[in-house]
Structure formats: C-alpha cells, structure tokens
Amino acid sequence: MTNRCQNRLVTMPATEEQQQLAARLFTQWQAGKPKSQIEREEWGDGKSHGRRFDRLISQTLGYPTVKKSKLADQVKDLELQVRALGAVPVGAQPEPWEVNLSHARRSCLAALRVWNDPTSTFRTEAFALLLVTAWNALLIALIQRRNQEWRKVDDLGQPTKHHGDDVSLDTQDLSRLALRGPNLLGTRENLAVWIEMRNKVAHRHLPALDAVLIPHAQAALLNFERTIVDEFGLPYALGGQLSVPLQLSGFRDPGVLASRKRLQASLPLDVQALLAEPETANPALLGDETYTMRVAFIPIVPASGRNPDVIAYFARPGEVPDAISEHIEHFLVLPKGIGTRPNIRPTDVVIEVQRRTGFRFDTNVHAEAARRLGARPKRGQPDDTVDIRLAEYISALKAYLYTQAWIELLCEKCVTPEGFFKATGKLARVSCPVIDNNQQSSAE
Asked: How many Å apart are CA 113 and CA 125, to the nearest integer?
C-alpha cells in the first residue's frame, strides 16, 4: 500500500509543551500581532499566511481563529429566502418536507383568497376543503422533518401504496402524531372542526356558516401561522404576504351583530350538533383562543361625520353598552399588555454589557450580536422591528432602541468566552478597567 493511500489526518493529543506554545502565540494574536509575523518569529517561515497558526490553535486549544466569509453568509441567507418562497436554488434538490411545506403554504393562501373574495357565495365550504388540505401537507412536513413515519403501513411494516404512490395517514391521525401535548388541544380540536366541515357540509350551501365560523376560521389561520413559525422559522411565515390576517366580511350586515346562538339555530340540526359537540365535551375550549377566536367589533360613526369601513371600539369593564352586554358571554376578551417601549440607546447597551461581562464590547460587536440573537434583521435584510420585546427600529431616527430584557439576554449569553464567541462571532477580550475621575484614592 502506497503512502498516498495512507495519507489521512490523525490528530494526536497535544503535549504540555504544545499547549503552552499555543497559549503564548494565541495571546500575542489577541494583542494584535498578525499571524504571518507570529509564524516568522516562531518558525522562521510566514509563507503559510497564518494557516499553520490556525491549525495549531484549533487542534491544541480548540479556538477558531478563521473569520467566516461574509459572502458565504450572504449566499446562505439568499438560499433560505429562495426556499421560503417555495422555490429551490438551481442545482439543488428539495427535501421532501420542503415540498410539502410549500404545498401547505400555497393551499392556505388559496383558502384565504376564497374567504376574502367579497363575491364568494360558497365561502366556508371551499375554505374548509383548502384549509384541511393545507394542514394535511403541513403535518406531513412536520413529521418528515422529525424522521417519523407519516404513511399507512401494512402488517409487515411496509408503506401502503395507491397507484404507485404512498398513502398517508388520515389528517386526524397526523394531527395526533404531530401536535401532541395538552397545550395544543385547542389547535387539534379546531382542526377537527374543519375536517368535519369538509366531510359533512362542503357539498351543501349554508350561508349562515360564514358568520358562525368566523371565530374558528380566525383561530385556524393563527394556529397555522404559529405552527409554521415555531417549527420552520420566521422566513416561512405567511404574514408578509397578507394585507390582513383574515378578512371578516359583512361588518355592516346586522346579522353579524346577532348572537352566535341565533345564527347557529338557523343551521340544519346535524350541523348544529357538529358545532356544539367539542364545546359540550370539553367546556374549557370555550376560553381557548386556539380553538375559537372571538372578537367583537362595534361599528360607530366618529364625530367627524366620516363613514369608515370599520372601527374597533374597546369598552372598559363596567362600561359595556347595554345593547351588547347580553352577548358578552359569547366572546373571548383578549387583554392587551401595556409595557415600556424600547428606549435604551445602543451606546448605553454597550457600556452596560462591557461593565457586567468584563469583555470588550463595541457598537459593531453589539450590532452583530443583535442580528445573531434575533433583535435585528439578518445582514442584508432591510432594517425593521423583529422582536418588540428586545428592540424597535425607529424609522424617523434610522436607529434602533433596545430594552432592558435585551441587556439581560446579552449579559447572559456573553458571560463566558465561549458564549461571547457564539453570540457575537468575535473572540472575547478582557476590557480595560474604567477609571472614574470623580473618585480619588486615599493616597491622594
């Protein structure tokens, strides 16, 4: 066997002498000495342009000393954006879960187009068909990504086929497999309602269903969006493609302001039983916004005399108009949390993080950490607010303001050299002590 065939890299444990050498050279590099100069001084040869130094530090101390290519990051971000749009970069093969996720998103958008069409006369029935199709594809994508079995199998454990194609589990079974846990009960039951709608009423024309099922439709959309973001990430969300989450049509129709029970009473008895069954079996679902999202809109005409499309009127407890007080029990009140908006400047964040961690921290390092930890959009994307709990982009100032929660997160992530590197992409360097000129030593 030739030496060429045996030419494999074998990493031997570093000796104490090598560890001391690596630590000494690493300290010199941290102090600002170029890698090539270190190599010339230590080994009398700088032709490797720092690669020999990189290997020594990586194999001995385990510290990365090679900066990641910005172009590689940009290419990766662009590829993610392309995949999030349902396309595949040229030369790449989509994963099976990506195909089903793309199918799910397209089907959900088609369902929204049907619901939002003001001329639609078969709204709920068509919406049910497309929504269940979207959920079926999304659940398969979830299970495929987890490397679990999503197909029906025979007694020998072999996938069942129909005309040469694999047969998937029923949508209800897929939801039990992919959406486990008591916290997803409302999501599962909401989907069950739409599956029954598809099976029993999709072929019947029942206009009253549109008003009765608005809460279920809104909850279904929010559940679908939340599942995509939690499992696949924000780039795959549908929110960026929608002008509104769900158009609740017919605000001016007096029937919409009627009680839910009165509208439901106009439906056939079998449909009434279908809608009431989950709530009867589990009364807790009435207060679960993932099962049914009930929001009350009270049309009013402002003092200016203009006639807006719709106004949401919020009444404080004890000030609810008598005209609608009898219907309050049918609606879920969603309190809006009020807190302090982001108001801390980046320079103040930098000073506080450096003081608490003891590592050098400047505005450039802070900006990179904000991109990595989700307080700002990734590099190359337009400035915008990503998470209001951490930071807010003020377009008038063309700057970001941050929260105390962001400072706490940064200090938690950057308290160790390893955490500092993971959060910022930079090696942690001890900061110089801050001298307070207002304080004098006792010797003075």
From this structure: 13
Count of residues making up the chain? 444
| Cα–Cα distance measured from residue 112 to residue 244, given in angstroms and rounded to the nearest whole number | 10
Both ends of the chain: CA-CA distance in Å? 78
**Hey, where are the domains in the chain?**
16-26+33-60, 78-153+166-330, 346-424
Tens-level pLDDT at each residue, the chain (444 residues): 444 333 333 445 668 888 888 888 888 888 888 888 888 888 888 777 788 888 888 888 877 777 666 676 777 777 777 776 667 777 777 788 888 998 998 898 898 888 877 777 777 888 889 999 999 999 999 999 888 888 888 888 888 888 888 888 899 899 999 988 888 888 898 899 888 888 876 566 665 566 667 778 888 888 898 898 888 888 778 765 554 444 433 333 444 444 445 544 555 555 555 555 555 556 666 566 676 655 444 344 444 444 444 445 555 555 556 655 655 555 544 444 445 678 899 999 999 999 999 999 999 999 999 999 999 999 889 999 999 899 999 887 788 999 999 999 999 999 999 999 999 999 999 876 544 444 443 333
CA angle 105, 109, 111 (to 5 degrees): 115
Question: CA–CA separation, 222 vs 220, rounded Å?
Answer: 6
User: In this structure, how many other beta carbons lie within 10 angstroms of the beta carbon of residue 200?
Assistant: 14
> Which residue, chain included where needed, has tokens 């050098």?
360
Backbone angles phi and psi of 151, in degrees to 5: -100, 160
Phi/psi for 85 (5° steps) reads -85, 0
The CA distance from 149 to 22, in Å, is 49
Contact 131, 220 (CB under 8 A): yes
Residue 374 in contact with residue 387, Cβ under 8 Å? yes
Cβ pair 366, 382 in contact under 8 A: no
Strand bridging mode 165-166 / 391-394: unpaired
Residue 287 identity (one-letter amino acid): G
